[in-house]
Automatic annotation (TrEMBL):
Belongs to the transglutaminase superfamily. Transglutaminase family. It comes from Python bivittatus. This is Coagulation factor XIII A chain. The keyword Secreted applies. One of its GO terms (biological process) is blood coagulation, fibrin clot formation. Keywords: Acetylation, Acyltransferase, Blood coagulation, Calcium, Cytoplasm, Hemostasis, Metal-binding, Secreted, Transferase, Zymogen. It catalyses: L-glutaminyl-[protein] + L-lysyl-[protein] = [protein]-L-lysyl-N(6)-5-L-glutamyl-[protein] + NH4(+). Coiled coil: none annotated. It is an enzyme of class 2 (transferase). The active site is at C322, H381, D404. Factor XIII is activated by thrombin and calcium ion to a transglutaminase that catalyzes the formation of gamma-glutamyl-epsilon-lysine cross-links between fibrin chains, thus stabilizing the fibrin clot. Also cross-link alpha-2-plasmin inhibitor, or fibronectin, to the alpha chains of fibrin.
Amino acid sequence: MTEPTATENKKPPAGLSGRRAIPPNVSNAEEDEVPEVETIGVVPRGFKREDVLEVQDVNLFSREYEINKKEHHTDKYYHFKLIVRRGQIFHLQITFSRAYNPEKDQFWIEYLIGRYPQQNKGTYIPVPLVQELESGKWGAKITHRANNSVALNIMPAANCIVGKFRMYVAVLTPMGILRTRRNPDTDTYILFNPWCTEDAVFLDEEKAREEYVLNDLGVIFYGDPENIRSRSWNYGQFEEGVLDACLYLMDRAQLDLAGRGNPVKISRVGSAMINSKDDEGVVYGSWDNVYDYGVAPSAWTGSVDILLEYYSTKQPVRYGQCWVFAGVFNTFLRCLGIPGRVITNYSSAHDNDANLQMDVFVDEHGKVDSKLTRDSIWNYHCWNEAWMSRPDLPVGFGGWQAVDSTPQENSDGMYRCGPASVQAIKHGHVCFQFDAPFVFAEVNSDVIYSKAMKNGTKVVQHIDKTQIGKLILTKEVGTNEMKDITEHYKFREGTEEERLALETALMYGVKKSETEDASSSTEVDMNIVVEDSTLGSDFTVTITFQNKTPRRYTATAYISGNVVFYTGVSKTQFKDDSFDVTLEPMKVETLEVLIESSEYMSKLVEQAFLHFFVTARVNELQKILARQKTVSLKIPQLLLK
């Protein structure tokens, strides 16, 4: 059965369609009046009002102990309204004035959000009655009828807007469309769903979901690598008022409602809104040890008081430093359903001039020149990671994304940072948005000590390649112990792979005119071919180098193999090899890397791909070659005789 939508009827309901030059729809709180009755033509002769199917009650099973919140992992929210996650069935029951007759009666559910709802923007959703629900697509299926009541399963789309929707039941009658009255008790919050495979934030491990979405208590590490200390933090994402406060941040940022189904946009907006710079956001930062008219950063123990104070006063809360920004941002992410965690980077670089290195200048007497030295190194710095697919990036760069709300540098006109793919940072691919060069410099830049001469020249005195990013920690899943994730961001210090990543970053991030020359090198070319293979068998990856010059070169190459979900999120690495190769003049050199089934079979997941990433440095030319390839393994044929 297909229900008529508001735009299909002769007279569209006000606020649902037919507008021109509609103002921006940027507030979850604002709403338009929706007509309770829409007349269609002339009422038939002999029509009796008592024959009309009218809605008397709607039961959303919204209490914390009822089925919807239990199934959607939202039973911890201290909230009396229905909170569900997108891409997953929830249940409701409608009681009519008489028994529903599917042969002659027609009704549908409507969800609206914000002002000026439009179907093509996803802000007006007429949910059709269907025979069978489709995974991840809006639909309603009648599961039971008894007396005057109808039980339904509702499936929200897996990419729908995240926010608070208004809910109506519309009935088609001989006199027109009869709609239920505005009832705030039927408002429905729809959140991101890490349990849904079609959702962009899908996370495939239950323990990880329990930690990064459902855990409302945590620890944030500080100190130094020789004296690691931790402070407890109450994220409190389920506390009364916190969900509405988090949704308000997107209103305050004027993020269009149509963009609120995209975790990339939401995490980037959150990165800007948690700090007060340039947008009067949540936390006012102070690093001068003067905390008059506010609370010292070290006195905060959680996010709840901060968010609720901001929500009620609409003024920045004083004061915060990096761990406060990270703690509040983590609450924002987990509250909306985006898996999030707090990261601590020891010996963290602040690259002020965006050249991917820490420049320390000394005068001719060996003293640091404070006027020339603009870069800085923090003892430690905290930021966040948010888990999501990145369809805007090449395959393999989804998963954990670095997002930082501490105001350090301007990004696209605002103080924010990320989301930047952690996998891209590790490999030096700082060409991918957002703010990957800045995060790369934080964890893996070199410290260049230069002497500033009186004549204006600068002479490099020393390069420290190991000072930055000494240790990167987060909380271990299920315990308060620390988890070392340094190798998520960088290869082991001093290895060829780590140097190669740095050179790749410098190629992409600094010398843009040379980047083109390096990527389209006429001297040496590299290509990779992955052998067609069947699931469960061994196969080879062939790397071909072509030396087009009469000179002899040497190269250092690295191959990484990863299992990735179909969304592009990397699950785990199964191959990690490096090798040296000699390139004879005017010849082709071929290397074959064997991929054994035992290396990848135990790590496969449903709809998985294998992603190979190969980089090589031609030593004499100091140029970087990079290629990547994604393959899907064929399913073995089953022959029956």
